[in-house]
């Protein structure tokens, strides 16, 4: 009887609006709700507090069993405290799985490596099946931000390789990431490419003729210092384009300082996805800067939201990357080399121009592709097709 309690367990650190990535949080909530219409579904996650009560007030997840561990830290806490919090969550995940005995599990890379490895161990012991959703590939992606000791890196890569090879299905974001998974993890099963949903719906508003916008994490992989230097140079040379930045991260202070010193630059900080989408719709071009090395391990999370906001894409990266191919082959925008002079030239070239084609095609061709419904339906198909 105990084994029949849960047919699908969804494991992810964030859920619904408690998720630091609220778009993915809402998408997983929709996934749980739709799956619970036919199956017994449980969710194992962390919460900042009273998430069950808030979900109940909103009438969400009525038929879903919710197992939340209260989160004790945030990104502002020390590495030691965050590691301790992650260790506690790992124990919580294993105990919850043993209690629920799910036959199928969905696990993503939030948090990376350790919790997916816990799912691997549970599945090995209790003969369960799981699909592993690699939103990022770790430890490779994390090592680009924080230099890991060689021993730690090798151990984490070994753990993740076992987790990948033990999965019935793998989900990831791009062909480049798929190739890395197959080659580095020696995975011989099915790897499904599933792009993340958008946090907005298509906007038909007329964009400002000279607006550039950036939305998302302002970390070490988003070339923020390059953007700041290029914008300063562009404005000094008489450029009249406006720039809006939404989000937070390790380099947000550089953008804040730029907004205080340079006219036409606005820093709005982190915003709710609905409000951010409304602001994106007021701009003609969305800046998508990314370090070339990371494109084998991750894909910019805001790309779909940019598209459905009616923005053209200004991809700032090398031409031989998955991001450049995505922007050019689909005619979503243009690609600029990650150099100050090239970026300044791009700003001048685009400040009064939009895409050459009518973007109203996005309403039909991309609206469904990047919807929560399409995303959750795809996850249900994957989770219940595991053999």
- CATH architecture descriptor name of the largest domain: 3-Layer(aba) Sandwich
Shape: globular
User: What distance lies between the first and last C-alpha atoms, to the nearest angstrom?
Assistant: 22 Å
CATH topology of the largest domain: Rossmann fold
| Mean pLDDT over all positions | 89
CA gyration radius, whole angstroms: 21 Å
Q: Supply the CATH superfamily name of the largest domain.
A: Glycogen Phosphorylase B
CATH class of the largest domain reads Alpha Beta
- H/E topology pattern: EHEHEHEHEHHEHEEHEHEHEHEHEHHH
Can you summarize the main beta sheet?
A: 7 strands, parallel
What's the layout of helices and strands?
Blueprint: E1 8-11, H1 22-35, E2 41-47, H2 51-57, E3 64-70, H3 79-100, E4 104-108, H4 114-126, E5 129-133, H5 140-143, H6 150-166, E6 169-172, H7 175-185, E7 191-193, E8 211-215, H8 224-236, E9 242-246, H9 252-261, E10 265-267, H10 273-280, E11 285-289, H11 303-308, E12 312-316, H12 322-329, E13 333-336, H13 340-350, H14 361-365, H15 372-383
Parallel strand pairs: 1-2, 1-4, 2-3, 4-5, 5-6, 6-7, 8-9, 8-11, 9-10, 11-12, 12-13
């Amino acid at each position: 009887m105990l084994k029949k309690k849960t047919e699908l367990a969804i494991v992810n650190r964030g859920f619904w609006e408690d998720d630091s990535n609220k778009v993915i949080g809402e998408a997983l909530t929709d996934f749980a709700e739709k799956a619970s219409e036919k199956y017994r579904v449980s969710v194992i996650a962390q919460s900042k507090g009273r998430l069950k009560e808030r979900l109940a007030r909103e009438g969400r997840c009525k038929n879903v069993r919710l197992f939340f561990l209260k989160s004790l830290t945030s990104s502002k806490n020390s590495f030691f405290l965050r590691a301790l919090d992650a260790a506690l969550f790992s124990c919580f995940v294993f105990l919850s799985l043993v209690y629920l005995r799910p036959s199928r599990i969905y696990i993503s890379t939030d948090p990376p490596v350790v919790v997916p490895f816990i799912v691997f161990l549970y599945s090995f012991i209790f003969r369960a099946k799981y699909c592993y959703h690699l939103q990022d590939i770790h430890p490779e992606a994390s090592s680009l931000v924080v230099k890991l000791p060689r021993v730690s890196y090798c151990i984490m890569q070994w753990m993740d390789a076992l987790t990948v090879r033990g999965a019935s299905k793998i989900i990831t974001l791009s062909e480049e990431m798929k190739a890395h998974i197959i080659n580095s993890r020696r995975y011989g099963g099915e790897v499904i490419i599933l792009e993340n949903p958008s946090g907005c719906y298509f906007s038909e508003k007329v964009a400002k003729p000279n607006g550039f916008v950036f939305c998302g994490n302002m970390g070490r992989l988003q070339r923020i210092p390059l953007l700041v230097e290029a914008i300063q140079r562009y404005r000094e040379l008489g450029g009249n384009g406006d720039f809006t930045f939404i989000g937070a991260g390790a380099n947000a202070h550089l953008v804040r300082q730029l907004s205080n010193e340079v006219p036409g630059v606005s820093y709005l900080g982190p915003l709710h996805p609905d409000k951010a989408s409304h602001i994106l719709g007021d701009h003609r071009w969305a800046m998508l800067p990314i370090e070339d090395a990371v494109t084998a391990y991750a894909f910019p999370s805001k790309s779909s939201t940019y598209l459905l906001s009616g923005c053209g894409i200004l991809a700032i990266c090398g031409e031989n990357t998955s991001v450049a191919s995505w922007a050019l082959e689909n005619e979503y925008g243009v690609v600029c080399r990650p150099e100050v002079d090239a970026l300044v030239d791009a700003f001048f070239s685009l400040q009064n121009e939009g895409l050459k084609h009518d973007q109203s095609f996005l309403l039909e061709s991309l609206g469904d592709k990047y919807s929560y419904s399409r995303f959750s339906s795809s996850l249900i198909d994957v989770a219940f097709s595991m053999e």
